[in-house]
Each structure stands twice: as structure tokens, then as C-alpha cells.
Here is the input.
Amino acid sequence: MLHAWIDSVGQVLDESQSRNFTMWPILGVYVWPNPSPVPPDYTGVKQELKDWITGRSNWLDINLPGNCSLSGLDQTISITNVKAYPNPAHDETWILLPDDYSGNAIIRVRNTLGQIIETREVNIKEGKLQVNLDDYSSGVIIIELEIAEKQLRTLVVKK
Here is the structure.
């Protein structure tokens, strides 16, 4: 689950990381106190974080008593072509689907711990769904849509 979360957040941050590393071209460059070797690209940075989390989890399993399963580390979250605009957002965002789907769907809103904040039926028109964010706390929100037994997910950062 942690690896999937890193990938999801990495996708949300993809555009901003591109602007960041255009402004400050430090990918692949040692910046104190980063460990060596320095990843040459953003994908490498994300993989280094996943490797560290896996190594740390393994160390915890060996050195602390109890049972803990890391079976969810390799799960992936499907975010195929689902966009949220604007993102980050203040009071509302639009979920944009890859086709012009119109019809009913179930929306689940989750926090970053995976806890369901809200579930309700919605009507999508022409591949667009307006989502009001007023009732949610600031931070990352996971929005899931269930359409004809298919689940689509995207992340929204609420300011």
C-alpha cells in the first residue's frame, strides 16, 4: 500500500516536480546531506524512497516482536487517465474521465490512511463530475469512482 501511495502522490506531483527540477537542476547532483549514489531522475528518487521503506520495514520485522504483513507494498492503484482539475483545489474540483461516459457511479472519498470519509451515488455527465470539497480537511484526498465494476482513482490536494 505504501508503494502504491508513493506512486499515486508521485503522479500528482509530476508536473510540479518537473517545474522544480527545471528551476533547480539538482537531479543526479549530490546535495548535502543526501546519501550516495544520487538518483539521476525523478523515477529513481521515488524508487529510492520505496527501497528505503522496504528496508526499514524488514529491519522492524526482524528487530521488533509481533506480526506485520507488508503484502500491500507492491499493490498498484489504478489512476489511468483520470484527472482532477483544478488540483490543488480549494472548494471544488472536477473529475475528468478519459471518455465521455455518462451515467451513474459510486464515489468513495478516502483520506491518506485509506479510511472512507464519504460514499454516495453520483451522476456523471459527458465524462465530468464536479466534487465539492468543503466538508473535507486540507491535505491529500483519494477519490475513487466505481463505474460498471471498474474502479478508477485519483488524488486531489485540498488547500
